[in-house]
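INFO  loader      accepted 1 record
INFO  loader      residues=652
INFO  predictor   begin
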Amino acid sequence: MNLLLSKDDIMPHRKKTTKSKRGHLNILLLGHDDDEAALINSFLKDKGLKFSLKRVKTLKDFTSALHQFNPSIIIADLAMSKFNGLKALIYLRKHDINVPLIVVTKQQIENAAVRCMKEGASDFIISKSLTRLPNSIFNSIKAAERKMQTNISETRLLMNYELYEHFLKIMGEIDIGLLIVNAETKEFIFVNETFCKICRYTAAEIFNFSSLSNLIAGKNRESFEAEMAKILKHNNPINIFNAIILRKDNKKINVEFTARRSFMNNRVLIISIIKEVTETLSKRLMKKLIDEASHENEKRYRSLIEGVKDYAIFMLDSDWRIISWNAGAERIVGYKEKEIILKNFSVFFPKNREDSIDPIDLLKKARNDKHVETELQLIKKDGNKFWASLTITRLNDKDLIAGTFSIIIRDLTKNKISEELLHEQETQLRSLAKHLQEAREEEKLRIARELHDEFSQMLTVLRMDLTVLSRTISKTISEPIQRNSLLEKISSIAELLESTIRSSRRIITELRPAVLDELGLYTAIQWQAQEFETRTGIRCKIIKLLYDINLDKHTSTAIFRILQEGLTNVAKHSAATNVVINLKVIDHKLLLELKDNGRGIDKNKLRSPTSTGLLGIRERVMALNGSFEIHSDIGDGTRLLIYVPYKQEEKL
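INFO  predictor   done
INFO  writer      dumping tokens
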């Protein structure tokens, strides 16, 4: 059974967070000495808070106070070794007690602060910064109450556990794909085993996807999201449409969605039934065959299958010999009926079975499982191979005049050729994009070197000549007015020359920053962030790199240029005050994350052909065989995620 919710989630046993009386708080102090306790008590009273305060120092007193004093908030120190704030957090989490805890300590200890926040601390405050404490107390209590209310709502929703479990058992075992998603976030709430089989992912892997759209093949996502949006906007809550799912093995399959909206616990859900189109079509054809064959008039049955020309439809007897043949089979495979009748089914399979599927294995599997569907290469009468979709169904002999297996073959050669051509074109485009990017960078590097080696040197020589000329005029011209006039002109020329030198250095740096070649990507990112902050006034923070990242020259350059383009977009469009840059390796992929707190981007503008900045980023990412994501909502900032394959360059 593939479930999002476990039994513990359905019937949770949690200790309640008791709300304090309106305006009055119960504050539990843990581990503070007399002076610190007095300071906190005095400070909170000065701020007008109404509260009762209790101090404890041991685990025994702490557990007793949790049940008898019923604290609204816990303020803990880290100084005590036997039982301190960190151990209290671990105790609360272990016993599932939802009381917020704020760490207030004398010294800033970075590792301790990180550990406390990971263990669930609501805040970490230094004693000398107590001005934050009142707001932190109220925000922490509100957050705990919201969490408790969410748990209560979930418990009420799933009160009847036996009925819910029975529903999940039935839904998990039905022979159609079933999934439930949150209409607002598109996050998965439930999937059954059949849907997992359709897309070849496990339930755990599916729940790791942030959105249902991530399972849809890239070019089809826009139309898929439009269809899903219709379910919410139109009066008719049911919508039937086709979509293309990208399976785990990278194969694209056409599926039929029957989706409807539902309301539960103040949430809008989308419940969908999913069927593979090929399987649905095969079953419909088989149903027609069986319905017709069950009649006494076999001519009607033969007329039905012989009229189908796009599919090869025939039957096998118990010895796997061909006993019927339609016009579609003759068109696809090339054999006439009199040539193929009573020949073994293996005639369509290559003789060299090392590179092919064994037909006997397929028929045995169909005998056991009743139905087998696969894609493979078969052989025509002329000896040519072709790609085919093969469906084998075991039939009930009592319902048919003859035959134990029904075979349906569809020629996929054109589809495969189109897929191969498309893949080849995509590969060529990626290769071309990569070549163009590398050529641009090489040209920039060449120009930067020429400017540095020739133009900059000439400007430097010119500056030296002006200095010599100035000294010569000072010594040789005795008339003060004439001498001063010439010196003023030389000074003006020198200022212009200095400005030109600075501009040339800036142009050289923009063409190819020397720090990228000499000190590596991470140092270049630090330099670029500092330059960006100085130039724009937007605060730029870089997440500390945990270990060295070694990349080849072209990848480093592409990542650096993507960062520059991203920062340029932030400066031009976001109206942000803060930017966070993160560079790390996740599952053999290099992640560059750029997050700002600006006004966000309209989703329509993300797909606009005039968004040249985003197009430039997409082009560079495509050249690296990477992927590109933007998460943004109006007013909530923008998050840019770049994933590229990471293969660490060996150091010499």
